Amino acid sequence: MIKFLDLKNINKRFEPEFQRKFEQFLNSGHYILGQEVEIFETSFASYCGTNYCIGTSNGLDALTLIFRAYLELGILKTGDHVMIPANTFFASVLSVINSGLIPVFVEPDLETFNISVQEIEKQMTPNVKAIMAVHLYGQLANMEAINLIAEKYNLLVIEDAAQAHGAVQVSNSNNQNSNSKVLKAGNLGNVAAFSFYPSKNLGALGDGGAVTTNDKVLAETIKKLHNYGSDKKYEHNLIGYNHRLDEIQAMFLNVKLPHLDADNLKRQEIAKRYLTEISSEKIALPFYDGSKNHVFHVFVVRMKNRDNFVSFLKKHDIETLIHYPIPPHKQKALETFNKLRLPITEEIHETVVSLPISPIMTNNDVSQVIKVLNAY
Ligand SMILES: *Cc1c(COP(=O)(O)O)cnc(C)c1O
């Protein structure tokens, strides 16, 4: 049986260190916003190349805190429109709606699954004040183009980097004098949100998330908001929340962060094998430029008659998942959007299948998947 993602064995690699650190934790007697959270915030900011990182309770809360902070600062107003790729995971949409803002669903490119830059321009109105770029499936959105549009229309750029920890953008700026600048997910817009849900490329053993930014005022506001609106015990300047990163989860993340780049490299190697060795014409392979701008959170192919394909793979002991079966605008929770026509998004949701990919898959596992796929 080739599992879609063998989380138990992914984490088993770190068990002795987890146990050693857990002993330390028990002896410390410090359970909330202790040393582990502080160490993680410093290391993750430095990993992403940003000045600030604030640990949060999960990815949805990280995204929501960003919008709440912009509202608090008067940079966004209730009812402002936020552009968002129509094929994203539902949590991206929830953060917009739960903050009293209005999502504008923008079609993605069928090739990259990421928000289409042309469609952003087409759907622009004076009500739009922000763009949420989601690096879907682990591949960076076209941030250079998105940032140019944002400059032109004076918009905020918020990254939903929940699937793209460690993805690297190498600027292809044609300015001859500037050294080409290497930037990572989390440092490609005004502010970014990460999730450390267990199945993400950097996963905790429970819920966790983070916000990264270079904006000092925004970072300070989020830091207060996520801790009862307070930065001094029992003094509350803002109507805040309890959206803190847990000390134990930070401890697990501190053990795992140094291994993230190697894990991502392994995912890229598997993806390269899939892309060169899968030869079945019935399977549409994803676009990948071969660089580090894609960390393959999931490897998504497209296919007609998906149900047939999925049951064929299941019969041959290969687990798959679908990211995602129903697009946000077709969800019951979003009744007022149900009538929208978004043909590319709908086509994606009807045809995508995610194949097994993980840092602990063996070469034999990968060969087995390829063999079965080519026999389909
Ligand atoms: C996982 C995910 C989230 C939500 O993160 P949680 O930690 O589960 O709240 C948001 N956006 C995207 C794109 C995600 O994949």
Automatic annotation (TrEMBL):
What the entry lists under CDD domains is as follows: AHBA_syn (cd00616)
Keyword line: Aminotransferase, Pyridoxal phosphate, Transferase
Q: Which organism is it from?
A: Bizionia arctica
A GO MF label: pyridoxal phosphate binding
Q: Could you mention a single GO BP entry for this protein?
A: polysaccharide biosynthetic process
Q: Which residues are annotated as active site?
A: K200 (proton acceptor)
Sequence similarity: Belongs to the DegT/DnrJ/EryC1 family.
- Superkingdom of the organism of origin: Bacteria
User: In its UniProt entry, what is this protein called?
Assistant: Aminotransferase
Query: What residues bear N6-(pyridoxal phosphate)lysine in this entry?
Result: K200
